[in-house]
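For the sake of transparency, this paper describes our internal protein records without simplification. The tokens are whole numbers drawn from a learned vocabulary of local backbone shapes. One such record is reproduced below, unchanged from the form in which we store it.

. . .
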Amino acid sequence: MTELIRTEAAKRKVLNEAEQSTVDALLAQLSSGWYVIPHVPFEVVSGTNAGKYETDCVIAHPQHGWAIVETKGHRVSLAAGTFYGNGKVLDPQPNDQLRRNAYGLVDFLSEKLGRKLSITVAQLLSAPNTSSIEGGEHPALSKRQILVAPDVDLKSEGTADKVEEIVENRTKILQDEDEFQECLRAICPDADFIWDAEARARRARDRLKELCDQRVEALESLDRNRRIVVTGGAGSGKTRLAVRWAQRAAARGETVLMVSYNDPLGYELQERITPREGVVVGPFLRVIQQLPGMPPIEEPANAGDEWWKETLPTHIEDNFDQIRIRFDTIVVDEAQDFQQRWVDIMHRLLSNDGARLIFLADPEQDIYNRSAPLPLADESWVQCDLTLNTRNTHDIAQLLRRRFSGAQSHRRNPASDTIHYAEAANFDDVVSYVAGEIDRLRSAGVPDSSILVTTVTTAIRDPLRREFGFVGWEERENGIVCENVHRVKGTEFDHVILVGLIPAREDSESQEPQEVRDRLLYIGISRAVLGLSVIAPRPVLDRLGFD
């Protein structure tokens, strides 16, 4: 959540109506992780900026940086490059006041910490009693830096949008957590700051669950329809909605089949659904073999695509009439992974014409090139598109949005930990950086069970497992999981280290790494709930916007 901190001076001062409106908007609209500090007086003792200062509000975020906000309760207008309030020239001019206070704050913090800080303080003007600023652009203060009445409306997102554009998206030098906390203590020496990584992680997970549950509750009654197709980006709540629908069907006494394609997600679904007779949950190609009456078929030790795509489906089709169960509700999560033959089998498993079939899919995660067409143009299907990301914390969700057109981050999503990245051109680079990231996370108190190292090829995954003793998903109780992104689709971990390197082909004259598909990066990044580290060749980092 956004935190309000009051200095001793602020505790003694009653904010005027305009200042209070600005503070309320900042608290209501900014994403979690922001600190809002109203009425900040400070003094610079020496140097060219020596003097006493007072700013209406300071906002700060450990990843996004610092900004000051000056509030004007007048009806503000602009003419010939000059700001007016209620028709009179404002003195001092807001742009001059903001610039002086911003530079002064940097000097103040540098003096308090005893070293020159390489931070930039962004500048925002709030005019909550002004509906719009007329009179063109000011050369030193863009309208993008000015909050007006529609922006500070508590139901609006205008304040958050402008803070994101002016503060979050600008080029900046990130502070480490210790220095950030030192700066907060310099401004508010009387406040009690305790940096508790696990508590922050727990609050973030609770907030994300709360947001997702609210959306699921709003949509759960759609299961009154007999044919439903839900699409949405990674993290938009498809799996939680699927689980809710399966639980509701089971509570009604229906026979239920809930499936996904890949094993890890299928077995996680089993853990979420209370077992009972007539409820079958798990990976489709596993559970279909175990349905009552289905004759067994021996799975080869190294069963390949041909066995899963042809041999097993043919066995099921040839013996279908021996299956002794039909289902009132079938829920298919990650439906974009299913080929048409498997979908046809599920249609045949429905108990009657009124039985319910529900697909949930993200077409952007179709990496197998076998997806059965989703019935998006069929009028007999109710269609729903989930547009908000409630799995990933804000900065990770925004990365997915900007680079891969993922679901938009919910405004109330908590802030991410700092996103880390490192350039790696070969396996030795990968080993060095993975070791450093594991040490960093462990030293911060992150348990191994919360860490996923995910790769885009077995040519990196297998030697990483040997080098570090990482384990596969099935042994996740015994160490850090290391899997290709293909296997962890639909799952999530608090902290993800994504290795986006595919070595050059052995038969290639070029030693340059092979290109990595965007969809693999999209899936890998979207597994991360709280923290993300990307280790990849420079072209991959460039595509992700990591300079």
